[in-house]
Amino acid sequence: MEFSELIRTGRAEALLLPGPGQPPVRGTLCITSHHLLLSAGHGSPGDLWLLLRNVDAVEKRPQSLRLGDAANLHPPDHFYQQVALQTDAWRLSAVNRDFDVCASYPPALVVPVGIGDEVLARSARFRQGGRFPVLCYYHTTNGTVMLRSSQPLQGANRRRCAEDEELLRAVLALGGGRGLVLDTRSAQAVQQARITGGGTEAKAAYPGWKRLHRPLERGRPLQDSFVRLVEACTDPSLSMDRWLSRLDGCRWLTHVKETLTAACLAAQGMDREGVCILVHGAEGTDTTLLVTSLAQLILDPKCRTMSGFQSLLEREWIQAGHPFQQRCAHSAYAQARPKHEAPVFLLFLDCVWQLSRQFPLSLEFGEGMLLAVFEHAYASPFGTFLCNSEKERYLCEVKTKTHSLWSSLNQSKERRRLRNPIYTPNPLALWPSVEPQSLQLWAGLFLRWTRPPEPAQEAWEQLWRIVTEQEGGDTL
Amino acid sequence: MEHIRTTKVEQVKLLDRFSTSNKSLTGTLYLTATHLLFIDSLQKETWILHHHIAAVEKLALTTAGCPLVIQCKNFRIVHFIVPRERDCHDIYNSLLQLSRQAKYEDLYAFSYNPKQNESEQIQGWQLIDLAEEYRRMDVPNLNWKLSDANRDYKICETYPRDLYVPRAANKPTIVGSSKFRSKGRFPVLSYYHQDKQAAICRCSQPLSGFSARCLEDEHMLQAINKANPSNRYMYVMDTRPKHRMQSWWASKKDIGRIVVRISSKIWRDEKIRESDEKARLNAMANRAAGKGYENEDNYSNIRFQFVGIENIHVMRTSLQKLLEVNGTKGLSVSDFFSGLESSGWLRHIKAVLDAAIFLAKAIVNESASVLVHCSDGWDRTSQVCSLGTLLLDSYYRTIKGFMVLIEKDWISFGHKFSDRCGHLDGDPKEVSPVFTQFLECVWHLTEQFPQAFEYNEAFLLQIHEHVHSCQFGNFLGNCQKEREDLKLREKTYSLWPFLLDDQEKYLNPFYTPSSQKFTVLEPNTVPFNFKFWRNMYHQFDRTLHPRQSVFKLIMNKNDQNKQLEKEIKELESKIKQQKTRHTDTVLTKESLHCIHADSPALKPSLCFKKEQTLLPVNDAIRTIEGSNTADNRYSEYAEEFSKTEPAVVSLEYGVARMTC
């Protein structure tokens, strides 16, 4: 029989899923030259015989994943519902439903309740890329809020925009009366931005808002730093002293320290000083998101759970319009240095890792989760990190045509790899130490392939064993 | 006591070491005969042992008072501000005298009384028995014997009484060899590897003097080599760096050279090519490896190996530089790394570990015996021998084994603890962190092999604490003879039983004992495996540490597992009892009642246990403390929030108006 040459595996254990509501049938799957048959065992009535000519289409599906899951996992308006439970001062606006007010924002945005959509639209025209200030975090304990936006288009002749001022005034009225604009650029960089039409909030135009500059590096310098670090980590010929000076020279840990400091500052402002925070840099899609997402992780215990962290990533990075496609196209080894390449998201993951080192019990996810997210951000069989914004994702029909990373990560077989076995919910804020002695190089990522991970891996396994033994004991 | 003038000062401020805005705690300072005690307004106590104080400094008077900075040998640095200058001066003078004792008898160990009776004290000292340790290594045996040559410390004062030497080495050989070696420290056995029949021996440098030969010393090495039937060659490891050797070759100083069979003729040959240092070095190396052109038969059994560990003075300066850097306020990441690099500290740590790895490999892969020496054979040699055996023999990775290792390679072979740690007021040039380096190397190994060690970081830190504390007799004095003269065994207590009593604290929860005796650790010494040991050098700067500890949690979980298992057993036995009672007696209402009354009483105790251990007590405190932004540097930006607006605003407002 010439057909038999085509058969590589004659039989296999298989599970037949007849349809919803019926129990699955376990049996042996056999392929013959003309038939496919599934037998559940001796004399069972439900044997399936399928003439091969009868097969119309064969499709291989990733296990237990279904298209379109993503929308159900972290629905965009979930955040608003959470806020609405606490206060009715904020509303869900659909001003961006067709992506024509702001191309990089999602359709649903949370804004002060007294501000109409036309005000938002006008404010958007005053902000670079249309990214007007929107709510990104509501601090439950004292009702202060964190917003993010892009820089105002103040320009050299210091334009103003009444609607934008009205919007921020409304924010202050809702959240305690004092505000702080955390600009992630230096005062000098703001001056330069004015020449090209950008700028920052003039103090006179926004009474009650103070300004603080915490310059954070992004773009090319950050990418260079990353490239140099990776080079240092993979150079086998380094001596002790050269290693330390290379580590120093790449300045990566300086960036980590600066980022954590800025995030702590924003978090502290909300938690301790009771001020509202508006974070922006230039475009509001890179360093801005770094600060807002880290500050939430520091303050909000919900963000430190497995699903909370996923929805934080979904909300503050993916839907907030971090251009993943541009930023994470090539990573560190690219010959040509693409203009938009920058490891901003990786810097965020590194900061989270530093938090996890200082508060090893407080995060539900482990290092494996951060590594998995890092890998998928750069190359992934899933659609979660595709494209640069929600608009592009909508146009490419990413949600309906690809699988979601989250549903794959949430499968129980991934548990040991991704979860932190010693997680203990901690209702308090995590204030990390940002002294250089407290920061470490993320060996699990940067030295992943250069040093043998076995002993650490074994210790991790043992940790799991100790903890699961414990759980077994509890149930007894 | 006569040194103490002021015993109590109130309204003293304790400054936060890393705060740039001079945050402080106010409290009362007490001065006792043994400790300096600070109690802050929250009743938190800070105890500082006088012997731990490395330096006291009185800074220039400020408006707040007189600053007093105390640096400790355990790397604690405290910064007090005493309101009145006279008090400050009194305390300063008292501390200067109390921290620098001239006599051993004034040290804390001689007055410390842990409420042990005499037999317990004797038992404590007998806990570690080195003769038993050598028996564990299967020594004496066919090739190695116990020598009584040094019974009365006649041959070498800094060696212990009991020495193990090759069977072939007779007394004249020993005496002759000891005369050829600096301080009489001739080659003796430090560790015998049963499986490979190879030995680690140690000695000091040879004194070449007028002639570069000493037949007895040559016989001695021959005997060591012959005592190992499994390999025909042996290694001689000089732990000093090559460039230093070079420099004293050039200056032709009267310091020895490990030449064993290099005749004076070769030395003359060397001088001819003196201009070319490098060529000469290569020639030496070649000859040493048996590739030379003369006396090949004589050299074929000895291979020379240089490993570059710097001397005690370089190490001391290196640590000073390191402490200077990490004590800086408002340190930036780049200053930290460049400081770490320029101190060279991690480079030295790597050099020590590399040497130990070479030693372990020579024994395991080549079954070759190794003779280790440096200059005097009590600093670098101790480091390399002890670390090498730690890599080879899993026994030393247990708590008891580590104590034995320290007793054997450090205490008994005469590492000058009192000089190196500055126990007494002496030559500051003799002080050097050699033992600290050893502990740091061990810590690096525990980091690389989290499951290989029975003890944890806290154990190493505790030992470091007591090496300097002078609270126990173990580390006092510079050699065994001195310790016997001081009658330490009668007058002081041994540290080890106290550490064993507290064993729980020092256990590594991940420890998985290996089934075999000889599981060799092969650490990777690529540079990025060397990290700054924060918990040692910032042990007392709590704000720099992780706010939650995995170790404690796991220890608790382990305990809890045991506890639960115990409870299960108890409950099972109770059920059995109940059952037998049921069958024995008629089921009455009372007995039913009794069962019901039992169960709720048990349940809460279980629940309570769980609640309690979920967040270990200390951690809970830490978390709350950690949640205080005041601990961290960014909190100082908080001033930004409350600062008044600069005057520029109105101007800007005006401009904005005009343009709008």
Automatic annotation (TrEMBL), chain B:
Residues annotated as coiled-coil are 554-581
Example of a GO MF term = phosphatidylinositol-3,5-bisphosphate phosphatase activity
Instruction: Domain (Myotubularin phosphatase): give its ranges.
Output: 124-537
Enumerate the Gene3D superfamilies for this protein: Pleckstrin-homology domain (PH domain)/Phosphotyrosine-binding domain (PTB) (2.30.29.30)
The entry's cellular-component GO terms read: cytoplasm; nuclear envelope
> What are the protein's UniProt keywords?
Coiled coil, Hydrolase, Lipid metabolism
- In terms of domain of life, where is this protein from? Eukaryota
Which GO biological process categories is it annotated with?
phosphatidylinositol dephosphorylation
Q: Where substrate is bound, by residue?
A: N311, I312, C374, S375, D376, G377, W378, D379, R380
Matching entries from InterPro entries are given as: MTMR6_PH-GRAM (IPR035998), Myotubularin (IPR030564), Myotubularin-like_Pase_dom (IPR010569), PH-GRAM_MTMR6-9 (IPR048994), PH-like_dom_sf (IPR011993), Prot-tyrosine_phosphatase-like (IPR029021), Tyr_Pase_AS (IPR016130), Tyr_Pase_cat (IPR003595)
A Pfam family assignment: Myotub-related
Q: Which residues form the active site?
A: C374 (phosphocysteine intermediate)
Give the UniProt family note: Belongs to the protein-tyrosine phosphatase family. Non-receptor class myotubularin subfamily.
- Please report the name of this protein according to its UniProt entry: Myotubularin related protein 6
Q: What is the organism field in this record?
A: Sarcophilus harrisii (Tasmanian devil)
Q: Which gene encodes it?
A: MTMR6
